[in-house]
Input
Amino acid sequence: MKISTKDFGSKSTLITFENKSGIKISFTDLGARIVDLIVLGKNIVLGFESAQEYLEKDSYPGATIGRTAGRIKNGLVEISGKSFQLNQNEFPQALHGGQESFDRRLWKFDIFDKGDVVGVHFDLISPDGDNGYPGELKVRVTHSFDENGQWKIEYRAISDKDTVFNPTGHAYFNLTGDASQVIDNHKLKLASSWFVPLKDKSEVVRGDIAMTKGTDFDFQSGANLSQAFESSNKQISLVSGIDHPFLLDEPGDIKKEQARLSLNNLSLSVFTDRPSIVIFTANFGDKGTIFRGNTEVHHGAITLETQVAPGSQQIPELGDISLKAGNLYKSTTIYQLKIEK
Ligand code: FUC
Output
């Protein structure tokens, strides 16, 4: 495995690993994020060419999202019987941990080399009261990569006060390697019979859970994403694509393939111990962000964000995002690349 580092601007570093098959993956300490995933000559994650571009254009692509992924209605959480007001950066909601959050911070990093597996630990101390969240939270996100094309993300955190924590990774994938290509012919397979409907354009949850069966949210036996993009389903038109949490039928088993995204001979499988995957099909309309010279089209990428589904304040069945003082938070997600010969 080859390891290299270079200056990525704004005091950040780009760390690149290359395995024997020639697959390259790179990360930066700005946002503890993935920047590149280059396979078969294509860079299949959306990314920019400098830290400054992330800070100026959009700091979510590829980033570690925290403290809590997704939207929290009115930015209000109850923790051990007390109510806390979080930063309402998408007023009145709190989105992805509030303003200037994990995705915009410079994390400490430490590269390791175990031969067939290499990786980088990213560490951050989120102070007590950060964007309204109680407790000083020490977070470690470890990205590793191996000779078999496995990219693994491990999250660890500990707080000195009772708090909430529900991080995710926000990589946008486009298996053509080009954000100007719509992903409608990417095939998605997803082990989920249930999704969480949204209330309205505010994108907070409606309060119920719905079956995917018989709807265009059903990807259980695998279907092209055009199934959703051409759909007249009201939940899909509401956000002009998919921007919904899917609940996994058999959560908690890291050995089970929960999702698979594929195009031609390339596939990406998702393994996780989280109970849900939020899928966002980059419903950006004609916003046209430029990623490495390519102007992103509507539906120019897809995220597969593993987490507890946002909305657990309204729908407790979605899971528990509380983290008790002194308890260790642990979770793992794996993205496995496969090239069919
Ligand atoms: C996703 C979506 C949101 C938002 C953000 C950038 O996680 O759920 O709607 O647009 O990313």
